[in-house]
Amino acid sequence: MYDLIKKEASSCGFAEVFFLKPLRLDAWHTRAAHLGVGASLRFDVPAAYPGASCILLLVYAYAPFPAGERLSAYYLASQRGYLASQALVKALCASGIPCEIAAVPARALALANGVGVAGKNGLLRIGAFGSRFALYTLATSACMPRIEVPATASCPAQCDACMRACPMGAITPEGIDAAHCMRYFMDGAEYPFSVYQAQSTHMGCEVCQAVCPQNAQLAKRIPEEAEQAAFALPRLIAGDAAAARSLVGRNLTGNGKLTAEAICFAARAGLHEAEIRTALMASPFPAVKRAAAWALEQYFIKK
Ligand code: SF4
Ligand code: SF4
Fold first, then answer.
1. HSE-CB for 60 with a 13 A CA cutoff
2. Is the CB of 159 under 6 A from ligand 2?
3. C-alpha–C-alpha distance, residues 280 and 5, integer Å
4. For a 10 Å CB count at each end of the chain, is N or C smaller?
5. Relative orientation angle of helices 273-282 and 257-268, to the nearest 10 degrees
6. Per-residue DSSP letters for 206-231?
7. Residue 218, pLDDT score
8. Is the pTM of this model over 0.85?
9. Does residue 176 sit in helix, strand or coil?
10. Cβ neighbours of residue 67 under 8 Å, at least 6 residues apart?
């Protein structure tokens, strides 16, 4: 059974599967409620999936882009992993292994099962994958938990690479201060201006992962031509985000989110003023108008 699940998962593109206990995650829930995040996730896993004897944790590993790349390797992989998880559910069910997508806090459940370690940057690292993966969870009644914990190094006490690199000052020797990490402010289409000013990657921030020595062994890849073309700044600023959204997922990128980001990236580089002015006038999205007005004021009118 375990081998069959792993084989099907591998065929769908997953690098690893862990067979976790469906635990109740009260500590995660308390912290998430305090931060106002994760409302759609089910912290009481046994209650949410009463028939499930095991939660399959699927690891979709990816090769990061070189530091400084504006495209997010994570979100490109995350969309592929999402489609792969749907394909895997179909394949397993067709093989007589009942399962369903489980909306549970994957990182917290992994840690509660002893899989991986949390870095000072708050991110989960798992063995040879470092922190470069997207996680998916399936609930199943077909098998029991079987914990095989991969060796994962904790953060060296003296390491402060992520603390020094974080553009928001969100990492302390005690760990991440989520109230300052920009990732927590980037769910909708409109971000605080401090995020537009510091953001270096579309849709998120990967700075603390790029400098982490625990990720240094991972092979990198260069964005493909189609990926670069989809995220070309003039194209996004003109409101043509369809190709980019199909690559990173439409659910996360509505209401002009990518166009607003592109405007701020371009303005910070002193580029595309005329196109930004056009976006200010023509875009139907408040997020785009707001970003364009701010970017013009900050980077063109004041200069
Ligand atoms: S994701 Fe970015 S803002 Fe958040 S802790 Fe890492 S470097 Fe800082
Ligand atoms: S950069 Fe150093 S301190 Fe930060 S997460 Fe990586 S190993 Fe830990």
1. 23
2. yes
3. 51
4. C
5. 150
6. -HHHHT-GGGTTS---PPPHHHHHHT
7. 96
8. yes
9. strand
10. 210, 211
